[in-house]
Amino acid sequence: MTQPISDTAAMIAGMDPVLDARWWSFVGGEDPDVVFQLMGHALATFREEEGLSLIVPHEVALANEIEADPYSRITLQVHSALAGVGLTAAVSGALAEAGICCNMVAALRHDHAFVPAERADEALALLKKLQHSAR
């Protein structure tokens, strides 16, 4: 396993963004029966004061009659350190300049940018350009 990278320039230069072919949706869970069903499909969950938030496959949201926008996930392949500073700001800043909203999820080994599905290819191209400018 690689060592986590915390240097800002090295994280950006090594991010190697990859687009997930699957669409995802951010949903909330108020009905316990629905939440139980969704949990088995969830990529991620987060407990907020207002209730449970889940990231589930878009088709699962639709199958459960939940209206939710489709998002594409771009995984940054660099093993970024949790204490690393600047990667999220660089990614979200580059996307913001292009008017692309971005929901970042940081996990133990990688960061994931969720962008509107219809702008995924554009977002991926921008992040590859950002990566190359840091090399």
Question: Concise description?
Answer:
The protein is of the alpha+beta class.
Structural commentary:
By secondary structure, this protein is of the alpha+beta class. The protein has a single domain, classed as VC0802-like, CATH 3.30.2130.10. Helix content is 34%, strand content 30%. The protein has helices spanning 8-13, 32-39, 58-63, 87-97, 120-134, and strands at 17-29, 44-48, 51-57, 71-76, 103-106, 111-116. Strands 2-3-1-4-6-5 form a six-stranded antiparallel beta sheet. A hairpin with a 4-residue loop joins β5 (103-106) and β6 (111-116). α4 (87-97) crosses α5. The two termini are 23 Å apart.
What's the topology here?
Layout: H1 8-13, E1 17-29, H2 32-39, E2 44-48, E3 51-57, H3 58-63, E4 71-76, H4 87-97, E5 103-106, E6 111-116, H5 120-134
Antiparallel strand pairs: 1-3, 1-4, 2-3, 4-6, 5-6
Distance between the termini: 23 Å
Alpha-beta classification: alpha+beta
Mean pLDDT: 94
The largest sheet is: 6 strands, antiparallel
Question: What is the H/E string?
Answer: HEHEEHEHEEH
Kindly estimate the percentage of residues that lie in beta strands according to DSSP: 25-35%
Question: What would CATH call the homologous superfamily?
Answer: VC0802-like
Low-confidence stretches: none
Radius of gyration of CA atoms, rounded to a whole number = 16 Å
Shape field: globular
Helix content: 25-40%
Domain tally: 1
What is the CATH T-level topology? VC0802-like
CATH architecture type:
2-Layer Sandwich
CATH domain class: Alpha Beta
- Strand elements, count: 6
